[in-house]
Amino acid sequence: MNWKLLITLAIEAIARIKLQLLSMLAVFAILIVSYVVLEKPQYKTSWMLLLPGTERSSTINLDDVGESRSSGNNAYGRVSISPKNTYKEIALSTAVINRAAKAFEVRPEEFEKPIIKLIDQTPAMMFTLKGTSLKKLAKRASIFNVSFHETLDNLRSNELDRHYKGIEGNLAIAKKRLKTARQKIVNYQINGEVISDAQYTLWVTDAEQLRNKLTSVNADIASATAEIKSALKQYNIDEYQINDVVQLQSNPEVDSTTRLLGQLLSEQSSKELVYAKGNPVSKELARKIRGLEQKLNSMLVAHPSIESVNPQTLYGLLSSNTSTRLQTINRKIAGREGLNAQANTLQVSFDSYQARIKTHTKDAANLADLSRDHQIAEAIFSSALAKLDTSRLDIYATYPLTQLLTQPGETIKEDKLQKAVIVLALIMVYLMLAASLILIEVRKKFAPHTYPQTSKTEYEPSSAGQHTDEAP
To answer: Strands 56-62, 43-50: parallel, antiparallel or unpaired by DSSP?
Structure first.
């Protein structure tokens, strides 16, 4: 494109239509001045609203009763569920506008909606209202803010009431279930011998304790028996014989006879080395020994168990030297008999407990099932009751709490942007109209056949291939 030629033609066109351009400029200048002078000043007020987005959770745990939890996810987890978008729609809804218009005493269509800007990456919302009156603008902003928060409070109350009624219904069902479970346990306890799990558990515990004690006593019996057998083996007698021997030792006559017999036997042994058997001394000593033996045998008739004991061994057992040892063994035998009696008693008690446990095992199992159902019902009821009490604690779960960073109508300033935009728009319109007129004039030079000609010689091409504009 030949820009030099185009500029030349544009200047020529401006020269031809300068009166038109000046007239149009005067008209636009009058419009701009009239608007600036006559237009009332515009004011605007803005306030910032914050929506905290922290997660909240609470737990109530009661021992042996139940647990109740309430938690809320971060409100800004996803853009689609951001409360800022929800609050924007609520603020611009008919319900808020109608409430605000009624409080402002105007018709809803006359109440101007605010401009709401959501600030990215923050929980902030910017509300802006415009008006021509400072007082009315401040009042309108305050009324709108109050109407908006009253609508939020109504929504929260409605949600809480519906939620509360739902929990009350669940609580009634849980209470009925708990009452039924408790009544089943009471009926079972009235008609059965097992009235609690603790009772059956005590039976099992007592039986186990009896088993352990019986095992310990049997071990003591076995240990005492082995020790007694080992001691009796040294004297070549049994348990029945030692009892008779101890009884004989307690007889003073037997003791004196045994002691004298022992002395004579000792004397006989020493004199056999000096005197022959036919010696009168030896005969006299032998006669005395036989007399003592006969006397001792007569006293042993009442104790037949020791007849099989060798006389020499018996004399040694009846001597005072073995008395203490034999009495100790005899006491051990008596102690073992006591352990045997204790073991028999424990065995009888253990068998009784075992029979009782086996008889009532099914009853205890049924009671355990009923108790478990009762515990579940009680936990559900307690949880529902705790949830009912805590449901009102987190009233901002669905509709988060709002905080005002700046108060509505607190800062009001003149809105000069509107005037500047309108003035700039009028200037741009004038420039566009002027450019259009200039282009029309230039087009006449390039396409003269599209316009009526006043002379045949007009727009004839020159020898240099350019058009000339001759006067008619």
So the answer is: unpaired
Alpha-carbon distance of 126 to 117, in angstroms, equals 5
What whole-number distance in Å separates Cα of residue 450 and Cα of residue 453?
9
Question: Which helix H or strand E contains 289, and what residues bound it?
Answer: helix 280-300
- Angle between helix 134-191 and 94-104 (nearest 10): 130
Could you tell me which residues come within 8 angstroms of residue 426 by beta carbon, excluding any fewer than 6 positions away?
A: 28, 31, 32, 35
Query: Tens digits of per-residue pLDDT, 317-346?
Result: 666 667 677 778 888 888 888 999 999 999
**How many other C-beta atoms can be found within 10 angstroms of the C-beta atom of residue 151?**
19
Tell me whether residue 103 is exposed, middle or buried, using C-beta atoms within 10 angstroms of its C-beta: 0 to 12, 13 to 18, 19 or more.
middle
Is 14 within 8 Å of 110 (Cβ atoms)? no
SS3 of residue 45 by DSSP: strand
Per-residue pLDDT reduced to its tens digit, 173-193: 888 888 888 888 888 778 877
120 DSSP β-pair partners: none
CA distance 203 to 193: 12
d(CA 390, CA 388): 6
Cβ atoms of 148 and 129 closer than 8 Å = no
Q: In Å, how far are 39, 41, 42, 86, 135 from 413, measured between CA atoms? A: 16, 10, 9, 29, 12
Please state the rounded mean pLDDT for residues 123-147: 89
Q: Judge whether 472 and 454 are in contact, CB under 8 Å.
A: yes
- For 103, phi then psi, to 5°, come to -70, -30
138 and 181 Cβ atoms separated by less than 8 Å: no
Alpha-carbon distances, residue 351 vs 7, 58, 221, 359, 364 (angstroms) = 127, 54, 20, 12, 19
Hey, where are the domains in the chain?
Answer: 3-42+415-450, 49-180+402-410, 202-359
CA distance 59 to 57: 7
- Give the residue carrying structure tokens 């009442």: 302
Residue given tokens 């259009």 in the structure block: 436
| C-alpha to C-alpha distance for 419 and 192, rounded to whole angstroms | 95
What predicted TM-score, i.e. pTM, was given to this entire model? 0.44
Task: Find, among 78, 106, 111, the residue nearest to 92 by Cα.
Answer: 111
